[in-house]
UniProtKB/TrEMBL annotation:
<keyword id="KW-0853">WD repeat</keyword>
<keyword id="KW-0677">Repeat</keyword>
<feature type="repeat" description="WD">
    <location>
        <begin position="125"/>
        <end position="166"/>
    </location>
</feature>
<protein>
    <submittedName>
        <fullName>WD-40 repeat-containing protein</fullName>
    </submittedName>
</protein>
<feature type="repeat" description="WD">
    <location>
        <begin position="27"/>
        <end position="59"/>
    </location>
</feature>
<feature type="region of interest" description="Disordered">
    <location>
        <begin position="1"/>
        <end position="27"/>
    </location>
</feature>
<dbReference type="InterPro" id="IPR019775">
    <property type="entry name" value="WD40_repeat_CS"/>
</dbReference>
<dbReference type="InterPro" id="IPR001680">
    <property type="entry name" value="WD40_rpt"/>
</dbReference>
<dbReference type="InterPro" id="IPR036322">
    <property type="entry name" value="WD40_repeat_dom_sf"/>
</dbReference>
<dbReference type="Pfam" id="PF00400">
    <property type="entry name" value="WD40"/>
</dbReference>
<dbReference type="InterPro" id="IPR015943">
    <property type="entry name" value="WD40/YVTN_repeat-like_dom_sf"/>
</dbReference>
Amino acid sequence: MASFGTQQPVAAAGQKKSIGPNDCNVPQAGTDGISSLNWSPTANFLISSNWDSGVRVWEAACNPQNTNQPVQVQPKAQVNHENSMPVLDTCFSADGSTVFSCGADKAVRMWRLGETPPNNIPQQIGAHDKPIQSVGFLSKSNLVVSGGWDAKLKFWDTRSPTPVGEFQLPERVYDLDVQGGLMVVATANRQVIIYDVSGPQPREHSRKESPLKYQSRCVSCFPDQTGFAIGSIEGRVGVQYIQKIPNKDHFAFKCHRQDSNVYSVNCLAFQNVYGTFATVGSDGVVTFWDKDNKQRLKAFPAIGQTIPCAAFNAQGNMFAYASSYNWSKGSQFYSPGSTPNEIYVHYTPEDEIKPKAAKKK
């Protein structure tokens, strides 16, 4: 995939904090690292999870005619996990009414928007034996799925504290993603497990090794459910199809690299309208890609701080991304005074994310 290229734009340290000059700086983004960002499927509500134990919700509004501030964001509410434990992931229910979260307290929790839970702690609906890395919602069966460092995948009916299903995995869960009837789980030791969740009972479809040589960091399903993209700590992304599709093959490409420095791909975010996607990395760079035409659409200047997570809203015209320490290097590299925790929302016009005509060979 040589047409993508590997070099990224560089900005001088301290000069840029956002990828766009008019990006909205989200208020009250938390006091510790930001671990996930997700948008409601039915409205422009943005949720984050943080290492400070918080789950926060904002409402965003987009007005492209206001070129000085096309996006405005207002804080709506916040809840916290117990014992000040880090929250590692969140997701919405299919109707956007409920937020699910998981984290180092080994609990899967549920929070109905508009309600204030007792002691401001969301209701626990499930548990693992070790911290829970990822949570997702299965719209076809109305089940919540959680993947933990106990190498287990559990499925929850919110009306019962006992899992309705459980799969033993080959290793710890590093990430999972659900899109319609497709779920993909990336574990330690470069294992990838694909599930069919289109019916009332999830079932395993297939297993494979990651096409990338080093540790998996993130995984994201295509909006059309025909495949998935996986990112790793080596600054590389693999694009994989579930079934053979004419004129489309698996491939991998390099990204988030500067000279001899290689940075982790921390998150992959697909845009629902066009099926294009963004990668964000520990180099502080956001890049938009077109997998079908194997093109880089837009590379933004580096912001000088790790970008741990990002997400497009359902309409595809707003892109949220976080800027914070992600704890990948441990506590010895964390400096509270010099490591801000910020979230920005970038208005995304079509010319940034819409596929361009394929280049003639």
